[in-house]
Task: structure prediction
Amino acid sequence: MKTIIEPFRIKVVEPLRRTTRAEREKLLAAAHFNPFLLHADDVLIDLLTDSGTSAMSQNQWAGIMRGDESYAGSESYWRLKREVVDLTGYAEFIPTHQGRAAERILFSLLGGPGKTVIANTHFDTTRANVEQSGARAVDCPCPDAKDLDAAAPFKGNMDLGGLLREIEAAGPGNVGVVVLTVTNNSGGGQPVSMANARAVREICRDSGIPFFLDACRFAENAWFIREREDGYADKTIREIAREMFGLADGCTFSAKKDAFVNMGGFLALNDSEGALEARNLLILTEGFPTYGGMAGRDLEAMAIGLREICDHDYMEYRIASTRYLCRGLEERGVPTLKPAGGHAAYVDARRTLPHIPLARFPGQAVVNALYLIGGVRAVEIGTVMFGEHAQHDLVRLALPRRVYTQSHIDYVLEVFEELVATAPELPGYEMTYEPRVLRHFTAHFEPVPIEA
Ligand code: F0G
Result:
């Protein structure tokens, strides 16, 4: 087979600024050894997130010009609503400025004190919004998810036995909602199978519990189903996505992922009474129901992005790019979570830097070394993010969509070569400032030398 190429060519470019190692040492110290606090133009290759960082197409930019900025009843709203209803099948569509705003509304309605929310794995903002409502967030990842090396096809799945046990322990009436995150971001960008989603739906239906998707990366998830699950090889991404949406009662969506936009999201659901209440909350903080937290032009770009993400050639290239990065890391002796996920490679920091104890944050050590060696920015998903509950210390290299080429990725792999060569000398970190919520975003650190 021939090389899978980018199914686009480049019309507009954004220059990158190179820095020296000496400059980066000063810049990282000024950012308190937390790359979230760097100025972005001091970063050469930014793999912090695939969220809101994608490149829009010429059609999306053309749509931006067509955006209708009417306060109420904007044509762009109606266009996007048609697109969302057609894709998801949910009757009610509520635009929000990003995913977490949809989460806040959903959990205000279905969470609250005394309630439990169960997910395959809550993303950090999802967990924070559940807990902010007064509810308890419980993760039930499938057993394969704990084993970084297990090459299971659907490591994003919900543990069905665990789900049943948690429902029984809480009492079905106290479970506000069950959430399937597709793909499972905190679990390594791993897909959820249709069979698993179907089983979750059966359990929820039997117990009278609402079932929602956190659908940020629904199209990447659909691609894996097409590749790996019996009966889907001849279906389109859109058909598979539709089938999965159809199993749930609604979804929250961050359009910053699988809709290629820089800002946007929505809540969609079947329940029209719930939607009425959701719109009342929306008006308080997001805006009038036909724009939510978005400009008309952003609604327009999202409508177009939702179609483009379902393109076969695009998704084949997308998943091939992620696999290329993961394979390159393995070839250089960098242990990663297997198999490659949809939007990112996840490096196992504990095995990369075995001399650094967990209390000295091996993931943060990898992240900071990547910046110092090559100006590459990644994010820790481990003890810094989750505290002592972290099962692993991973470093996520997220790939923005349609942004970096193969030579950018080759450069990142060279940076890793140097990291591996100097690993025993790398310091650990001490947290010198700890914010109350979502501490990884703004925490401060100081390096601490570790005897290898
Ligand atoms: N759910 C999942 C699975 C996510 O990955 C994210 C965001 C959200 C919800 C929240 O969406 O940012 O639009 O409010 N993930 C980004 C990331 C931030 O880097 O993975 P948002």
The pocket of F0G is lined by residues 49, 51, 98-100, 123, 125-126, 181, 185, 214, 216, 254, 256, 265 (CB under 6 Å). DSSP finds 16 helices and 14 strands in the chain. The mean pLDDT is 96.
